[in-house]
Amino acid sequence: MIFFKRTLPLVIAFVMGIVAISIYYIPHQAAVDLNDLLSKWDRIIAAFAAFLGVYSLLYLHAGRLKRRQAGWGYSVFVYLGFVVMLTAAIYNNGAGPLVALRKGGAYDWLYTNVFVAADASMFAILSFFIASAAYRTFRARTTEATILLVAAVIVMLGRVPIGALLWESMPELQQWLMNVPNMAAKRGILLGVYLGAVATALRIIFGIERSYLGGDE
Amino acid sequence: MQRLTQFACIAALFWTGTALASDAVETGTGSKTPVPDSVRALPPPLPTQIRAADVPSDNGKAVVVTWLPDASTPSLVRYQVGVATNPSGPYYFGGEAPAAGPLVKDDPKIFGWSPANPDHQFLVVSSYMVPPATPEGNPERVELRPDQTYYLRFAVVGDSASAELAAPMSVTPRQNWIKLHKLNNLIFGLFFGVVILSFIEFARRNPNMFIRKIAGLDAVEEALGRATEMGKPVYFVHGLNSMGEVSAIASVNILGRVARRVAQFDTTLKVMNNDPIVLAVSQEVVREACIDVGRPDAYVPDNVMFVADRQFSYAAAVDGMMMRERPATVMLMGYFYAEALLFAETGNVVGAIQIAATDSYTQIPFFITTCDYTLIGEELYAASAYLAREPKLLGSLRGQDVGKAVLIAILTIGTALELAGIHWLTHLVAPL
């Protein structure tokens, strides 16, 4: 049992890790074909995992409904949404589930007029959240917050016509802020990120980090 | 290409005719007859040093033609390459380059940083177009095949005349086993790998090695303790990445450590997932962590849940749960996009202590603004090792820091050398 729970996953992680790294440096057609094959496997596994996600979601909400847990009304909406969308997709504007999705049917209508609208509303809330977060951050109580406030004001003004109207060099200054200090910080973070990713990958490939398997390392 | 050949012959005839006509005009009896434009057409000069070669470091499906353009070449000409599998043809259109096309020195990926002929022009040919058999058909693009010998005809095509290389060139594309232009990447990767593995080995022998403090990770204990005292749940929110990305693996590793602590404290841990594979791994990790600390009963399958696979549906659902349950601690781990602020601001509103870790540099400012602690970039990858406090994992952290020091040194020296007009270090580390 230990072999299947520990040894085999570690061997697979090691072999696949080495293979994936090698493929990156080998241009030979055999490596390209192997890469394509692995990508297909990845997509197939992901497709099966989608069923797992749907099962988990429905099982969780079925339990909440059964127990009449607080907020069970939301679970009704989960089931309602799932059943309505599934029915519309199967009906497929009268063409049935075995042909490609038809345009202009109930599924299309629900997607455009319910899902996209709800998604856009959620995205729109972001602007209010940005405003409230900015208000808290830009209160110049510390040196760092003051620097942040000044930089933000320059960048905001430099990107709108009124900035150039106030001071003609404002757009150039905001561009400099974006291209030099901002870019330098961004690249510094990215270098650290890539190095961290290499270290994590090595720990996993060589079986030093095992917590992703669960249990004790 | 046959048309091109015919056109070249006609152009050559025109050129001969033009020469004769101009002779006639010059030696004539003084009558000034206007010369037609077509007769004036001269073929553009053929470049010299035309060569065909296999493209290095590829899968054997491309060849490259290089040439030294003639200084007197008009700017409107095009260099065309015809491709055939037999020297006698038929030749099909393989590609063309403008007169002001790329130079060999502009493409270090193929020719290296110090090519022998930097001012030569080049054209990469990876396929050729076979005309349709019928007028209503479409031309077919045929890719070059490895180990097949191809014959290339080179021509310079002007507005009204063209010139063609007399003999075709032969070239055989070959498959290669290493991308030479990625050799610097491989060497740096191996170097950092050796550094990290060496420090892991070093840490095994010296378990008390000093590791810099990471405030956000020191606060994990405090945050989990707060949740225990308040009797409220801990929320662990995964980013939008799938299990194929290292940041997702790093998040799952952190989850394992957090789940162990939460099980020991007998607190509720709720894990939000937006990817089914991450869900499956998270369930297993939390379950094993609970078993590992002798609290298998602490694992509640419903608490490791799949929420939604769409970005804003995920954000809406998690925010809704936060507002209803008011968790004491929210941990946001992984790669986030626009939903980052939606999570963090909601967590702030409900008064949760928030620890975020992300390698998404665009979202870092939002987390710094709204969260109590933010792990920036590589600290996400360091977190699991830091929380484990295991010597061999901490060794990799030290290796990471040494790697960073080396990079800072290279950047400093490289900047100084660039300012002095010396480019070799930039070329050495440039990604191709």
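qc> The radius of gyration of chain B is 34 Å.
qc> done
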